[in-house]
Amino acid sequence: MPAPPDLLELVVAARAPQAEGVAWLELRDPRGAPLPPFTPGAHIDLYLPGGLVRQYSLCNDSEERDRYCLGVGLAPDSRGGSRYVHFALQSGARVAVGYPRARFGLAPAAGRHRFIAGGIGITPFLSMIHWCERHGADWELLYCVRSRGRAGWREALLGHGARARLHADDEHGGPADILAWLDGQRPGDHVYCCGPGPLMDAVADAAGRLGMARGSVHFERFAAPGETVRQGDRAFTISLRRSGLELQVPADASMLDAVEAAGIATPSSCREGLCRSCEVTLLAGIADHRDYVLSDEERAAQRSVMLCVSRACTERLELDL
Ligand code: FES
């Protein structure tokens, strides 16, 4: 089936095991056409059978225009996405892909980039490291894995010498001491973390204890840490200015659910507040932002809202829909 016009239809040109539980894939245009550019740390959405949409960081050099490379970890509790990529998406298969999106990227003003990766969370840093090497930017990496065999791209990364440190939990009897690694922060340093929730929490905690400025610590999430609807959530009303509709959002449903139930087609992808595809302009009211993509400034500005997870602090929100 051809990809919808707003998606790219690419072919799996190559694939290979990269480490224990990690598959590497190379996607190309079937006719050899150049692909839309991307920035270091950007990701794409893969549109998989059964309506699954999964996000994966692009891990090749962003100067390359002829291919997108991905690293996909096999999630033990996979809802189908990583399992499909590992066992069904073979070389030669066609796959619909969204255009690259830059939700996570290098801070232009940083004097040094300090990357902390957990497991498959290494992938966005691979394109960032390519960029740093190409442009002579200062960087270092702490790469945390449960065991050495699970560390994809290990040889290439360790080839950078003292810049890249591998921490295998089973060799050290436990997780890395994040506070110790982060200590020694210099003015102008920026810290970036991608990995499982406990690692992100440890980095956030250490950054707080070391008094790092919030804007200098960056996180990339690929799974929302909690339920999107919480106990105690209340119903509220949304007014859709362009459609002229007024809808009730029940306590146990999202704005996106309500809008779709009313027959209004609106883009969405992750449905967890991670991808920004369901963002709409907020015309009136105050949103309770529960996404992971808006900056503190964007939250405070109350100009847009993610329909899939956010709720209302006021009785009513007016949306540009
Ligand atoms: S669908 Fe991804 S943020 Fe809402």
UniProtKB/TrEMBL annotation:
Keywords: 2Fe-2S, Flavoprotein, Iron, Iron-sulfur, Metal-binding, Oxidoreductase
Pfam families for this protein: Fer2
Classification via SUPFAM superfamilies: 2Fe-2S ferredoxin-like, Ferredoxin reductase-like, C-terminal NADP-linked domain, Riboflavin synthase domain-like
Domain 2Fe-2S ferredoxin-type, chain residue ranges per copy: 236-321
Source species, domain of life: Bacteria
Family annotation (CDD domains): fer2, PDR_like
Keyword hit for Oxidoreductase: yes
PROSITE patterns on file: 2FE2S_FER_2, FAD_FR
Annotated FAD-binding FR-type domain residues: 5-107
Name this polypeptide is given: PDR/VanB family oxidoreductase
Organism: Cupriavidus basilensis
